[in-house]
Design brief:
The structure is a single chain. The longest helix has 31 residues. This protein has an 8-stranded parallel β-barrel, surrounded by 7 helices. Strands 6-5-11-12-13-10-14 form a 7-stranded mixed sheet, sandwiched between helices. With 775 residues, it is of the alpha/beta class. The radius of gyration is 29 Å and the shape is globular. Helix 15 runs parallel beside helix 16. It holds the Pfam family FAD_binding_3. This is Salicylyl-CoA 5-hydroxylase. InterPro entries: Aldolase_TIM (IPR013785), FAD-bd (IPR002938), FAD/NAD-bd_sf (IPR036188), OxRdtase_FMN_N (IPR001155), YqjM-like (IPR044152).
Length: 775
């Protein structure tokens, strides 16, 4: 096999070394346009997991790297003159030059041809002459650009500018420092990558690049508008380094910073639909990027190389191997990129967190990517987590999720909400809840959640999604719902039950979910109404009637009647459903509201009718009972609701008296492209809460009690709504308490169930242990 590698970075070099080591008969050539000792970064961080893979695949490379590594455990967070330290994190770093030197030596020892200062021929030309072409040519990959039709790249440029610099001494820990300048917030990310020589005096002057004092990578980052305000867009490398050193003079102990062909850059996220084309395959930053704040760029490239080499070894031919490589790596990379985007977005919105209490701010920073969690951080540094909880007023021995929360005139005993879930089980077809709803909601109320929400309860027959949807537009509905609320209040005392009122709009008159979600009924369809005459799926769903201004009063009155009935039925809380493309959501999104009257146009116009409905409902809903609003904070589609729109919507509803905003996303248009993943919708709630100071309910693939604890303690959410976990386990909240060893007032077991409050034994564990071993 003849292999061509485009790009002599760590990923390309390591792929070449592995392939040659596995089969010495392979002829491998690496093209690198720069000189051997040219590099545009400073330090490289690798995880223990990556190092384990290297050790297993190539012990010689591992031993060479091991001799170079700087290791440390602590993270220092410096903000407003206070330094908080969290330990137990475990980092390993070395200089990028040293990493490349190790890989150069290994490649030469194996007989790989390294062509430095040489532009690689085009990938298409190489593909004709070689059996395999590995494009490891970085974030600006010419291979990816030349074959964009095949790879399908999507490039997203983000809102901060950053520069890679170095300090000629070794920091004691990974350091995050926040500076509030006259121009705005500036942040420093710094870590050591070269150790001080034994016996070096820390007070002695620096001895030059990677000299006796050691060395550290220093990245300085800020929002684009801050960068321009500071005049850094007009500064060269030396001037930029001097400016950064002045801002962070205390952290640098008055020492200077140096660059290495350093320039201000806006981070670019790279995603590709496909990673291979014929016998050409993308690797590392050419295929995917992850923001430097989680330190995964080189890690991902090295792991790509390991996987690619393994797949070529295991599979019968190149095409199958490249498909297996992508199948193996894509889920891992997608998970890392989600974490990286969460971390990147946190730093973009850093200014919204500055006024948090010191320990909460530090905890928020440490858990920003959602990979480090409350429980995980407690394992690393229990004392630090205890300090965060003490600052928050969390009683000793109480997980954050089991602290009470006051919402309007209602005090919830914990932070768990059973999210509204459409059940499509009104058996009589006229909207009346039955035994199913009594058992479904009653079971979850007895399962320990602080608040249990109904499904979307429709305000009229025409406002139903399906014939199986429940309503509150007939006397028998109120009677049936009263039966449910009475049961909850009697059998699960302390649990609140809320009703979510809504109207289906253009998404109505469809089949039950399991018979064909969003598909029209085969017969018996009812007419639909919407802000504009736009079908949900053209050619599939019916075209709705665009509501005239004169017809809006009728819809508004339907909500008022339903709210009045809900109050008499005994609900503790009312939520107005303005999300997921239903009628009120349809007014809010520019993708579904094309009106030219006072109820369309800009966001003020699009908000007008939902606010009118809110005001009318608030006027009849009892003053002591809270009202919330669920919104879709993004449509996940071009031209739709933006994050800034979501903040403005939340602010408007809060000003009109909403006690909390329930922050969901999407389901507005069928061609949406959600960024699915664990807790993927929570950043939208976080932004609203920390921008406006408005209580929020976070939703979206929150699946563990650890997630709930993390979100609440970090101040990203006040309440967490979980749906599918409560379908899997109606007693999810009580089991979360048991698993954490908690038995306090935030999660009392119903008296008949108290005998089950401990995890049942799964088998005998007291068998005699072996005492003798016979050789």
């Amino acid at each position: 096999m003849r292999v061509a590698v485009i790009g002599g970075g760590p990923g390309g070099l390591y792929a070449a070394a592995l392939l040659k080591r596995l089969d010495p008969t392979r002829e491998i050539t690496v093209w690198e346009r720069n000189a051997p000792d040219d590099t545009f970064g400073f330090g490289v961080v690798l995880s223990d997991e990556t190092l384990g893979g290297i050790e297993h695949a190539d012990p010689e490379v591992y031993r060479a790297l091991q001799a170079e590594f700087v290791r440390w455990d602590d993270i220092d967070i410096v903000h407003r003159g206070r330094t908080l330290t969290s330990g137990g994190h475990g980092f390993a770093a070395l200089g990028r030059r040293r990493l490349l030197a190790v890989l150069h030596r290994r490649c030469r020892d194996l007989g790989i041809e390294l062509r430095f200062r040489t532009e690689a021929p085009p990938a298409a030309e190489l593909a004709r002459a070689y059996d395999l072409v590995i494009a490891a040519d970085g974030v600006h990959s010419t291979t990816r650009t030349a074959h964009a039709d095949a790879f399908g790249p999507q490039l997203t440029t983000h809102r901060c500018r950053y520069i890679w610099l170095a300090a000629d001494f070794a920091f004691d820990a990974f350091r995050f420092e926040i500076a509030e300048t006259e121009h705005g917030v500036v942040q420093l990310h710094a870590y050591p990558f070269a150790r001080p020589e034994p016996g070096h005096d820390p007070a002695a002057p620096s001895a030059g690049p990677e000299g006796s004092a050691g060395a550290s990578t220093v990245i300085v980052e800020m929002r684009e508008e801050v960068w321009r305000s500071a005049g850094l867009d007009r500064c060269d490398e030396r001037e930029s380094a001097e400016w950064c050193a002045k801002v962070f003079t205390d952290a640098l102990r008055g020492r200077s910073l140096r660059g290495n062909n350093s320039s201000w850059t806006a981070f670019r996220t790279v995603v590709n639909d496909r990673w291979s084309y014929g016998n050409t395959v993308l690797l590392g930053d050419a295929a995917h990027t992850a923001h430097f704040s989680i330190g995964s760029g080189t890690k991902l490239a090295v792991e790509d190389a390991l996987a690619l080499a393994a797949c070529l070894e295991e599979q019968p031919d190149t095409a199958t191997a490249l498909a297996a490589y992508e199948e193996e790596r894509r889920p891992v990379v997608a998970s890392t990129q989600r974490a990286a985007r969460a971390s990147l977005a946190w730093f973009e919105e850093l200014a919204t967190y500055l006024d948090q209490p010191p320990h909460q701010f530090a905890f928020n920073l440490l858990t920003r990517s959602r990979r480090v969690t409350h429980d995980n951080l407690r394992l690393r540094d229990a004392g630090f987590v205890t300090a965060v909880e003490d600052e928050a007023g969390t009683p000793a021995g109480t997980p954050p999720m089991f602290t009470p929360f006051r919402l309007g005139g209602l005090t919830l005993r914990n932070r768990v909400v059973v999210s509204p879930m459409d059940m499509y089980s009104a058996a009589d077809g006229n909207g009346t809840p039955g035994d199913f709803h009594l058992v479904h909601l009653g079971a979850r109320a007895m399962g320990g959640a602080g608040l249990v929400m109904t499904e979307m309860v429709c305000v009229s027959p025409e406002g139903r999604i399906t014939p199986g949807c429940t309503g509150l537009y007939a006397p028998e509905h109120e009677t049936a719902w009263r039966r449910v609320t009475d049961f909850v209040h009697t059998s699960a005392p302390g649990t609140a039950i809320g009703v979510q009122l809504g109207h289906s709009g253009r998404k109505g008159s469809t089949r039950l979910m399991w018979d064909g979600i969003d598909q029209p009924l085969p017969h018996g369809n009812w007419p639909l109404v919407a802000p504009s005459a736009l079908p949900y799926r053209p050619g599939v769903n019916q075209t709705p009637h665009a509501l005239a201004e004169s017809e809006l009063a009728l819809i508004r009155e339907q909500f008022v009647r339903a709210a009045t009935s809900a109050a008499r039925a005994g609900f503790d809380l009312l939520e107005l459903h303005c999300a997921h493309g239903y009628l009120l959501s349809g007014f809010l999104s520019p993708l579904t509201n094309h009106r030219t009257d006072a109820y369309g146009g800009d966001l003020t116009g699009r908000l007008r009718f939902p606010l009118e409905v809110f005001d009318a409902v608030r006027a009849v809903w009892p003053a002591g009972r809270p009202m919330t609003v669920r919104i879709s904070a993004t449509d996940w589609a071009d031209g739709g609701t933006t994050a800034a729109d979501a903040v403005a919507m939340a602010e408007a509803f809060a000003e009109h008296g909403a006690d909390a905003i329930d922050v969901s996303t999407g389901q507005v248009v069928p061609d949406e492209r959600p960024d699915f993943g664990r807790s993927y919708q929570t950043p939208f709630a976080d932004r609203i809460r920390n921008t406006l100071g408005v209580p929020v309910i976070a939703v979206g693939a929150i699946s563990s009690w650890d997630d709930v604890n993390s979100l609440v303690l970090a101040g990203r959410a006040d309440l967490c709504a979980l749906a599918r976990p409560h379908l899997y386990d109606p007693h999810w909240t009580l089991h979360a308490a048991a698993e954490q060893g908690y038995a306090g007032p935030g999660a009392p077991w119903p008296l008949p169930y108290q005998a089950g409050s401990r995890t049942p034994p799964t088998g005998r564990t007291d068998a005699p242990k072996p005492r003798l071993t016979l050789r």
